[in-house]
Amino acid sequence: MDRTGTREKYGRSMAVAVGWYATAIAAVVVGTASVPSAPEVDCSAMFSCLSPLESLVLAGVFWGGPVLVALLVITAVVDALVVRRVSSVVLAGTLSVAVSFAVCAVVAAAYLGGRS
């Protein structure tokens, strides 16, 4: 396959990967938005008066952005390797996202395991 065809497959498989990330983010937002707030809230602790959706936005700013950037970088590298060997762009994008989530889970487990 020529370089243009490989680039086109890579771009379409990355679009599939970004679609998976958008779907996951939308699912988290919808799930969090449907959680009702506690009726009686003690606001003496910092950030204790935030609604579930406000808590999600706060966590997204501090954790979500860097994690999403790391996932996209890992996905781009893995996708460049996978797209040459897999004929389906949907499968290539999905596999690259799955590998990226696995790498992120291993890094998070190592980080959390090292803290205890």
From TrEMBL:
<keyword id="KW-1133">Transmembrane helix</keyword>
<keyword id="KW-0812">Transmembrane</keyword>
<feature type="transmembrane region" description="Helical">
    <location>
        <begin position="55"/>
        <end position="82"/>
    </location>
</feature>
<feature type="transmembrane region" description="Helical">
    <location>
        <begin position="12"/>
        <end position="35"/>
    </location>
</feature>
<protein>
    <submittedName>
        <fullName>Uncharacterized protein</fullName>
    </submittedName>
</protein>
<keyword id="KW-0472">Membrane</keyword>
<feature type="transmembrane region" description="Helical">
    <location>
        <begin position="89"/>
        <end position="112"/>
    </location>
</feature>
